[in-house]
TrEMBL record:
One of its GO terms (biological process) is dolichol-linked oligosaccharide biosynthetic process. It is found in: Membrane. It comes from Streptomyces caeruleatus. It comes from the Bacteria. One of its GO terms (cellular component) is membrane. This is Dolichol-phosphate mannosyltransferase. One of its GO terms (molecular function) is dolichyl-phosphate beta-D-mannosyltransferase activity. It is a multi-pass membrane protein. CDD domains: DPM1_like. Residues 264-378 form the GtrA/DPMS transmembrane domain.
Length: 381
């Protein structure tokens, strides 16, 4: 990944004015009850974009207030086309709205920005020009490189949360996010040809992360920007949005089968705890250890089932009724135990393996079978 030195913040760079062709950029703005902001935003865009770069603006609106009307009125003073897509049944939250807007975009470049004036429109031409110069597919406006800052991120609590989230996300996707210092940014330019719209499953705020991980744009570069104060109103982000973000992360991280198998295995390991606790309690209560083993195993199975349902196959639960899933999962988990002994006997007797390697191999084989079986028989239609 290559970094391109950006021009002075907010100042139109000369190169920026040379690159564009007609209808060069579609600005996509997700809005949720931003009636106090959209007029100001369109004003700012009018001031700083069309003279340097021909543009159109697409709002994707999930508002319950009069935001669409305010946009339409303000649009009459704009020297560029303004479209409002109002969604009656919003899916995917902010990210879903952005993907909707990208599908409606008519230009080769798409710039995504917030509707509350926290993202300076004067940077729009520079994002596109930088992308053209670097032949990049994605240009991120970053708060975390030299020249950028998060002045408008109110409160040390939000700053700390933002830092943590950025760190966590970067550690989960070291390769995909290489060269992106601010994967949480909501301000970026992307080439339409680099978006794989059908592969996207946006969920909440972090649409840039979704695009970087799933669409994998060719080259990524960054431009610094100063995150402004909100012009009017309040942030729409809530604690529920935070939980949605964690689910989004989990979904992205377990998109490939190998990662899913690792998570499956880790959850399986944690199942030892309820298993052993139950065994301890029952043998202490005087139960013979053999029936206790069998019952205790069900505690481990139940624990694993709950975690797997919550964390791993959350959006794949729809294919079967929960009772059906429970039975299938329990059968597979117990078949694993029943299969293991004859498998070890086979490996020792027929293939001449020593007991320890045979046991290790049998554990691996039954684990993989159980994972594949769980995917195919419990969480697929
Ligand atoms: N259509 C639609 N649907 N728009 C939404 C929704 C939704 O469900 N939720 C929020 N928006 C719009 C808001 O109206 C606003 O225009 C923009 O998305 C950003 O929402 P804010 O509520 O202002 O977000 P923020 O300021 O807390 O967070 C911003 O900065 C973060 C970095 O600190 C966003 O840009 C985040 O993506 C970014 O991570
Ligand atoms: Mn905001």
């Amino acid at each position: 990944h290559e970094f391109t030195a950006p021009g002075e913040l907010g100042e139109p760079s000369v190169e920026a004015a040379e690159v564009p062709e007609p209808g060069a950029v579609t600005v996509v703005v997700p809005t949720f009850n931003e009636s106090g902001n959209v007029r100001q935003l369109l004003h700012q865009i009018t001031e700083s974009v069309p003279s340097r770069l021909p543009c159109e603006v697409v709002f994707v609106d999930d508002s319950t207030d009069d935001t669409p009307q305010v946009i339409k009125e303000a649009a009459q003073d704009c020297p560029f086309p303004v479209t409002v897509i109002h969604r009656d049944e919003p899916v995917g939250g902010l990210g879903g709205a952005v993907v909707e807007g990208m599908k409606a975009a008519g230009s080769d470049w798409i710039v995504v920005m917030d509707g509350d004036c926290q993202h300076p429109p004067s940077l729009v031409p520079e994002l596109v020009a930088t992308g053209e110069r670097a032949n990049a597919g994605l240009v991120v406006a970053s708060r975390y490189i030299k020249g950028g800052s998060r002045a408008g991120l109110a409160g040390s609590y939000r700053v700390a949360v933002s830092r943590m989230a950025t760190w966590l996300t970067k550690s989960l996707f070291p390769r995909r996010l290489h060269g992106i210092s601010d994967p949480m940014s909501g301000f970026f330019a992307i080439r339409r040809s680099d978006i794989t719209a059908d592969a996207l499953k946006p969920l909440g705020y972090k649409i840039l992360l979704e695009l970087a991980v799933r669409s994998r744009p060719r080259t990524v570069t960054e431009v610094p920007f100063v995150f402004q104060e909100r012009f009017a109103g309040e942030s729409k982000s809530t604690a529920a949005e935070g939980r949605r973000f964690l689910r989004h992360l989990a979904g992205l991280r377990t998109a490939d089968p190998l990662a899913r198998m690792v998570v499956f295995g880790l959850i399986g390991l944690t199942g030892f705890v309820p298993n052993l606790v139950a065994l301890w309690a029952m043998t202490r209560a005087g139960l013979h250890y053999l029936p206790a083993e069998i019952v205790a195993n069900q505690f481990g199975v139940a624990w694993n089932f709950l975690l797997i349902e919550k964390l791993l196959f959350r959006d794949r639960r729809v294919h079967r009724h929960w009772a059906d899933r429970t039975i299938r999962f329990a059968l597979l988990a117990n078949a694993d135990l029943v299969l293991r002994i004859p498998l070890i006997a086979l490996l020792v007797g027929q293939f001449g393996l020593a007991v320890l390697p045979a046991t290790a191999l049998a554990l691996v084989i039954t684990f993989v079978l159980r994972f594949v079986g769980t995917e195919a028989l419990v969480y697929l239609p």
